[in-house]
Amino acid sequence: MNVPVSWLAELVEELPDAARLSDLLPGLGLGVEAVHELPAAPAGVVVARIVEAEPIVGSDHLTMTVVDDGTTRRTVVCGAPNAQVGVVSALALPGAVLPSTGEPGTEMTVQRREVLGVLSDGMLCSPRELGVYDYAGGLITFADDLPLGTELSAAWPAETVLELELTPNRADAFGMLGVARDLAAKLNVPLRHPAERDAPGDEEADDGLTVEIEDAAGCPHLVLQRIDGLTIGPSPVWLQRRLAALGLRPRNNVVDVTNYVTYELGQPSHAYDRRVLEGGVLQVRRARPGEGAELLDGERYELDPADLVIATRAQGGHGSKAVGLAGVMGGLHDSVRADTSSVALEVAHFDPVSVRKTAKRHGLHTDAHLRFERGVDPALPPRAAAHCARLIAEVGGGTVHPATSRAGGSGPRAAIAFRPSRVEFLMAFDVPVALQRRYLEALGCTVHETGREEGPDAWTVQPPSWRFDLKIEEDLIEEVARLHGYEHIGATRPDLAFAPPRTDPTHRALRDELAAAGLQETIAYVFTGDDELARARAPEARVRLSNPQGVERSRLRTALHPGLLAAAATNRHEAGLALFEIGRAFLEHEEERLGVVLSGAWERGGWREGSEVDLWRLKGLLETLAERRRVGMAFRPALPDEAPMLHPGAAAIVVWDGREIGVAGRVHPEVADAYELPETYLAEVALPLAAQRLTVGEVPRQPYAERDLAIVAGDDVPYAQLERTVVDAAGELLVEAFPFDVYRGAPLPDDQRSVAVRMRWRHPARALRDEEVDARLNDVIAAVRSAGYGIRG
Amino acid sequence: MHDEARAEIEAATDLRALQEVRVRWLGKKGRITAELKGLGRLPPEERREAGQRINVVKQAIQEALEARKDQLERAELARRLAAERVDVTLPGSHGPVGGLHLLTKVTNHLLDVFRGLGYEVVTGPELETDHYNFGALNFPPEHPARDEQDTFWAEDGRLLRTHTSPMQVRYMETHRPPFKVVVPGKVFRNEAVDATHEAQFHQLEALVVGERITMADLRGAIQEMADALFGEGTRTRLQPSFFPFVEPGAEFAIWWTHPKTGKEEWLELGGCGMVHPAVFEAAGYEGVTGFAFGFGIERLAMVPYGVPDIRWFYQSDLRVLRQFRGAL
Predict the structure, then answer these.
(1) What pLDDT, in 10s, does the model give residues A677-710?
(2) Is B90 at the interface with chain A, CB within 8 A?
(3) Integer Cα distance of B133 and A498 in angstroms
(4) DSSP secondary structure code for residue B162 in this structure
């Protein structure tokens, strides 16, 4: 919403300057997004009338005009399509400097020059050439309100415009009146209501118009006002200037007034050429199935039966045809034309939700819809119609018909029980009761003390019809507080009996461990696409977005590894990569996960030997995490299809504290190729990682006894299976068994390997004797043999 | 002193040779030992003098041996040290250097501040329902306030949360007041992506509910956060604003010096206000008041640390991520 300061000054007495306003308005909740300084019309430009116009021979668009600037007549060559006799426009005299495009350095000085043999003594200007608003389709045109020869810079002075960023609750502030009302209340100065002296017409009298509302829920209130004897033409300069300052393009006097009032009172309206309303009938109804309408933007729209339309009787008086979308956009053929002399002005209140749905359905965004969907004062139409009609008659030289047609109406808003003491209760600062009343009344509320029995702290506050957002006591507290000023809010700390539990829902400890272990954290998008999921062999998408930013962002990720592989690909130039992400995957349920990807160099080589990442580095990382959480971690070889993104010969299911929590292994070569990655390893596990509580036990004092055993078994027998055989046979005094060498080669057959296992036994109370330990070892040997494995050495 | 012994000691070039000299002279079968044993064969009147003489020689040899030993040991050490010399200017060796994402660090910093102020930290789902994201937060159906939050909708009717505020409702459903919680997490808005706007970003939400929480308590919480982030006595500002789930509502800003321009200005951070009665009603709370505030984390990571483009956070480029390492 653009607010021209000079206009605001007409509504608020003693208005402060723009700098102060840009402080005051945000303090009222009306944020100032920007302050624009609009320049005056350039010097050396005068108002002039074209008195002669002849096409120039040898040009397809240039016209030789003679213009009258009140004192002299000049010949001016002009290329504008509307350079016609009678047009009052702006004449830049030789020597005038025009802003041209408005960019610095593009100014142009008007010169007397010869064009196709004609001496052009000045230049007739478009709005853009003058820098007053952005239109270059023809000359700027004026009404007769300015005497010829008037210096345009005097009639079109500079303007300061405050660009407000309004919150959706403040429907009222989408009009100058609403902004002015807030300021007047804040500054405690009188508000000058622009429509104060406009009285609605006589509803009993006949104006030849009929309003038929078929859907009162969609259109609770509508006024139709007839204005006759109009001459359509350009608006007076004051009106054009205001519209330009709002960022609108002036069209003609009638349309300009309706636009002006939209921004002035926040009340949209539409002027129909009265000839369009067959039989003088204006209808409001839902669209019929299959119905269409051509709207002002020149497009034809197929209407939905839920769309509220303005219609009139079909020609011949039978049936009904839609002419416009109620509260959104008027019809192409219903508006005023050059030869219009009588209009029917529609000023209505439409249901916000209905307007919003229709605008959304058709992708339309208009000044009218923006206001109606937020809520236009339902009580305003009669007065706004009278005001708007008066202005139309003034600028169009017509007369307002004494009769008016109206349908529906508006009731009072629900009263709110309000306790002035609650302001202090909630805001923790005191506002005197008399001041509270003044604030509320200045905003248009009616305040009653409820009654003796409830005491002085019980008011009944009737909010004004234009404040849809005032519904409950807290809404009124905010009104009092914002007028008083949020700067009065103190700073305290509540004394609450609350002891927060020490939890780690953001997995901070895990993140720190991984970072300390040498991994870099990344954060990827949760958005992905079917192609990406397929490339990474991740599960198919479960959550599909209906309004994505492109097909490659149309799904929610089902795993973290596609993002990590993409990150690895992004950083392909690095000698080694160690990345992790903690984030959510979206499958049947939303799961929080840890993903890790490792590749290339681990310890950097350079002048001495480094090391490359392998599966054991990845597994070791998980083992470290497990040890710090006092739980067991094991890899179970993955079955075919359990981890399709992994190399079938190096794919594992991560078993954490006895539960399967994810996958780990080498990325399948085909997947690695798809991402153009070298040998890469990844793990992805569900969070949180289970942990055992810390319990400190005895420190073992006895030495352990050690024995080694080299077991020969087939290459396809997992070590875990060998270890199980050993552990099961070694007796309960076994402390640990672990492999310390794996050997393949002669004299073993090709499909066999030897795994040297070291076993440690310990008795809690005494040293073990050799023969006791040997007996255990023999048990193990027997078990290994009976399992079908060999013993070496 | 025996010249012969002296010469032998001088000639010993390592500790083993020196030990042999010792044995030869002072060992059980050594020459000095033998001489001492031979004293018994001397007449008693000569024994004493001869004994003294031999002992003097023995002592001299011992001393010479010790001195030589010391000398040889020092030479040995010097040799060893010279042999073990390395070029300390060669680069060190280490595994990869890891690090946290800048957004994680800024979040951690904020959570430290709020944990210190007695807040509980909770997190919640990113894929939400209309009820938690809008309905229970007093966004009526078809209200323009919903347009302010360009929403990503899933085909099944769920949505990506547009703010962390759904956790207000979820937390209240499972807890009784009084409490103080903060909720960090990802949020999503379907708006055009550019250097300062992302479709995915992070927020931190705070919710405090008790018997009589006031707007001054809200201001106080924001003030304490500002003090912790930007130094004691940092100015804060609340201005009226509108969010359906608070009433009165406000925007808050912090007065700070822009690190790049050196200009003092208001840093607009986020929205806040007193919990709307409709939100309490949806949660079944009665007789309490509360405040809530929320703000974007990216902004607090970008502006102070000079990150020029919000998209950098999500592009996983190590040339960027590496710069995030180390303490803030």
Answers:
(1) 999 999 999 999 999 999 998 888 889 999 999 9
(2) yes
(3) 26
(4) S
Residue B54 binned pLDDT confidence (cut-offs 50, 70, 90): confident
Determine what percent of chain B falls in helix, strand and coil, rounding each to the nearest 5. 45, 20, 35
A144-165 pLDDT, tens per residue?
899 999 999 999 999 999 999 9
- The pLDDT tens digits of the residues spanning A287-317 come to 999 999 999 999 999 999 999 999 998 877 6
Question: Mutating which of B174, B207, B247 best tests the A interface, going by the most A Cβ atoms within 10 A?
Answer: B247
Q: How many CA atoms lie within 13 A of A393 on its CB side?
A: 19
Contact at CB, B223 and A169, closer than 8 angstroms: no
Name the residue ranges covered by the structural domains of chain B: 3-83, 102-324
Say if residue A609's pLDDT is above 90. Answer: no
ipTM of the complex: 0.89
Contact with chain A for residue B200, Cβ under 8 A:
yes
Q: How far is B259 from chain A (nearest CA, A)?
A: 23
State whether residue B316 sits within 8 Å of chain A by CB: yes
CA distance B95 to chain A (A): 4
At A777, list the tokens.
Answer: 């070892």
CB contact under 8 A, B321 and A521: yes
Residues 6+ positions from A441 with CB-CB distance below 8 Å: A447
Q: Which residues of A touch B167 (CB under 8 A)?
A: none
A549–B289 CB contact, under 8 Å: no
Report d(CA A323, CA A300) in Å as an integer: 11
Residue A206 to residue A403: CA distance in whole angstroms: 6
Question: pLDDT at residue B1 above 60?
Answer: no
In this complex, the residue of B98, B115, B248 whose CB is nearest that of residue A519 is B98
State the smallest CA–CA distance between residue B247 and chain A in angstroms: 6
* Domains identified in chain A and CATH numbers: 2-39+160-187 (3.30.56.10), 45-157 (2.40.50.140), 210-408 (3.50.40.10), 416-488 (3.30.56.10), 508-686 (3.30.930.10), 705-792 (3.30.70.380)
A604 to chain B: which residues are within 8 Å by CB? 93-94
Q: How far is A524 from chain B (nearest CA, A)?
A: 5
Nearest to A597 by CA among A532, A524, A540: A524
Sequence-distant (≥ 6) Cβ neighbours of residue A191 within 8 angstroms: A11, A12, A180, A181, A184, A185
CB contact under 8 A, A602 and B95: yes
Which fold does the domain B102-324 belong to in CATH?
A: BirA Bifunctional Protein; domain 2 (3.30.930)
